[in-house]
Specification:
By secondary structure, this protein is α/β, with parallel strands linked by helices. The chain is built from 17 helices and 28 strands. The longest helix is centred in the N-terminal third of the chain and has 17 residues. The structure holds adenosine monophosphate.
Amino acid sequence: MALPSTNSNKQQISYDHGLSDTPLLGMTISEALWKTVQKYPDAEALVVPYQNYRLSYRELWDEATKVAKGIMAFGIKKGDRVGIWSPNRYEWVLVQFATAQTGAILVNINPAYKSAELEYALRQSEVRMLIMSRGFRKTNYVDILHEVRPSLIHLKHIVVMENDWQNLLDGGKKISDEQHAEAGHDMQFDEPINIQYTSGTTGFPKGATLSHHNILNNGFFIGERLNYTEKDRVCIPVPLYHCFGMVLANLACITHGSCMVFTGEAFEPASVMQTVQDEKCTSLYGVPLMFIAELSHPDFHKYDFSSLRTGIMAGASCPESTMRAVREKMNMTEVGICYGMTETSPVSTQTFIDDNEHRRCATVGKVHPHLEIKIIDPDTNKIVPRGQAGELCTRGYSVMLKYWNNPEATASVIDDSRWMHTGDLAEMDEDGYVKIVGRIKDLIIRGGENISPFEIEEFLHNHDDVNDIQVIGVPDDKYGEAVMAWVVLKDGATVSPAELEAYCRGQIATFKIPKYWKFVNEFPTTVTGKVRKVEMREISAKELNLHYRQ
Ligand code: AMP
């Protein structure tokens, strides 16, 4: 008689669930902040050296309360959308916690947006109040807003930080403590509190709508995995408008009594290193490009990194060599990698601070507590065996409520069983460690062969003269697509395309060796530091006069 087939005699499947003794936080963001204020009232909470601004946790609560009352004085209520359009400034942080106190939904606007994108985001989420800075870099925000204002019928109130901040605070004086407390009591943790337009690298922006429960818990468990305490000081060069700033940094800090330390309105490697040294930061964040820029800065050796212990590299594939350099040269012995996307609050997997070198450098860690992940064949939706690549899906508290006002787009990424389909290709090993091996959209298909650009990038990162590399697919008459590499060489290196080809030959499959090479000083990126491969493809196709076959 044949035994019935059970999981134990089947091959292990690529599914994992994050067990934890630590319960989820069943509270609003405002309640979580209040708990920390009670516990560590005098601990430093927020440091913004370039604005000469420092607050303890008690002061952070008080200042956020003033802003909350100011917002309420404009008649803004729970569920109303309040936009924020500004680079990293202390006002951004106060508005984040002020909206969390009132229940207004904060709409993050990318500081790099120009008129069409701004108009789209403000209109799509029907923003009623916009808090903005005067401008960023060469862009004058006030002029841009003026241009699009006539079409924004929902936008009633505008606060320009540099001009109107004191008026905002003064206006709030007419709101009583009771009215403010009432707004707090009226909230539920499952209600939406934030809308984030997903990154420009993934096509037309959609407003990922996130609840208190989504992002508060994600921030909390990120901080737990890094062992954050009230002694930690987190250096934050990543932008606040993205989850990397407002969740991985801010919410991880406020759930542990750690200090948020900002480095500048925009990323600049020297000021990051200076801030780490001056503020004795214990943790440093960045996308890989930021760490690469710091490590290759001519003054790198002049800075003192001895206070650093940990940090996060995330947002894009993290080259093993960069991870190693960060550990060895920046004293970040407990640095971790996070993987996730805005739609999942964002983090789904993270390494542990005591993982071995291979796991910490070459994987994105294991599933987060209370979440489930699986890897499926995108064509059949069936879970693949461990070790086989497929699309990574996430389920649990972190999956966004929806895309704002966009049920079709929501239904195209969240299935009936509440799995979020990420579009990322991953593999899970026997112990549940996950490796991101590419993106479904990012595949290069050359003559029927699927090529993961990530794999070629990883390989060429090991070349002594290569500082950074990005691989894209460009049109090709014969094969449909050809492989192209954009390379940033190390200072003083003069390697030629022929030498790089020779280096690849015999090491990686011939069809993966780039046909075209382009040497550049930097890549086009989004504000978050994500490389814009779409733009690179357009530039190269034009320069090389290549066209896709009709
Ligand atoms: P965003 O929604 O802007 O956070 O972008 C999310 C996307 O960034 C993911 O779907 C991945 O493609 C990519 N990503 C994030 N973290 C990592 C990582 N650690 N390794 C590789 N790709 C990553």
